[in-house]
Give the backbone structure.
Amino acid sequence: MHRLGFGLSRQLWVVQAGIFLSMLGYGAVFPFEIIYLHETRGFGLGVAGAVVGVLSGAAIVVAPVAGAVIDRFGARATAVVAGLALAGGYGVLAFATTPAIAFGAAALAGIGNGALNPSQSALLASLAPRALLQRASGVSRVAVNVGLGLGAAIGGVVAGFGLEGFVLLFLANAVTYLVYLAILVAVVREDVPPEPVSGGYRQVLRDRALVRFALINVGMIAVGWGVLSWIVPPYARGIGIEPSLIGLLILANAVTVVLVQIPVVKAAEGRGRVGALSLGAATWIVACLLAVAAQEVSVKGAFALLLAAAVVVAVGECLHATAFMPLVADLAPPALRGRYMATAALSWWVGLALAPTLGGQLLAVSPSLALIGAAAVAASTIILLRASEPALPLDVRLIPRPGGYHLERRPRRLV
């Protein structure tokens, strides 16, 4: 198969372009969902927040089911159905004049969300050779961040036109999902699911390594992705930083991922996966402490410290992306890859749900407590990662180095 940059196939690069396009549309709407429902459609803040909550809640419920569907019908077919659900949900949200319509549309989009994440991960794992999984994961992370960043910038401009602008954004998001699906159907060969195995999720739960790392990942996602998204913005406002500057923190994080992800992947190849994950968690401890220190200095100094924290968080995200999903793909028997990826996706959704829920409560008590608590969670994940490393088979402990020596992957017995 002809290969382009970074050793990845032409087919894989085209899929990554489709991921970028779908994230471009999503990035244009997700920062404005509550604003659209509340200010433009006239829903109460509680109702608008509940509608947006359904998007994540439905994904948590659907993710395990999606894993079984992937193993039965294949990753591409599941991704296509998931994308259709997302396109339909966001298309209807564009015209959601009542809460009932909005909740129904959000549920449909949430179902698509819960299925697209694991099916997309399983698809990338099936298209990339084992030695290049970390590169495929890294490029995907860059595509997602570029799409989200550009989408949010475009969305901010278009949303300024009021209802017509919001309708256009939601419809455009639906269209980007449809274009992404067209790319998958046209470019990716039809995947033939392996012979099913008995046991389903009982087999998955027997894999002690997967279960341990999925549970640890809940804490890692809550800190690595949740703190900057939900804890830092209200914390920054509380110490006098303007909203426009808070937006720059998110932009700095996204730009850092784009610039650093590929070098991080190259530097990590041939090194331990647990080491990469632990180093990522350590960067988040540093970021939390920088944020705590921000309340002790001037507003300008506080912004500089939070900007540094956003950059450091991004480096940790890059290390996590290099190690975690490729590790799950390596652990997964082919017949259970969908369920393994769904289990990993579920750990993401749970972590993202816990961050604003628990972090918001701590923030109300003490901003310092919320950030120090997040640092403590990150520190505990390092301890748990190190304690869980012996559960990993020897042949999956290292991030493969393309062209270099690495242990061959062997079939596993789950006990």
Q: What stands out?
A: DSSP finds 15 helices and no strands in the chain.
